[in-house]
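[job 4471] stage=fold_predict status=RUNNING
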Amino acid sequence: MKELVRVIATSLVDHPDQVSVTEKETEKALVVELSVAPEDMGKVIGKQGRIAKAIRTVVKAAATKDEKKVVVDIV
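[job 4471] inference complete, writing structure tokens
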């Protein structure tokens, strides 16, 4: 999941070298934290959060194969 989020985020931003993705395993879910440069934050979130919602939907669809719950946080 970490690599999927990284590929999506780097294709959206102007500064792909500042994209950072970390994974944390909790007892209920896998938490994927995405951080980008401050000037790229709007590109990752999108108008009314549409891009962020789309990223979460794609990751959730990919996680159904593993039967795990995945949460994507944009930091």
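[job 4471] summary: The chain has one domain: 2-74.
[job 4471] exit 0
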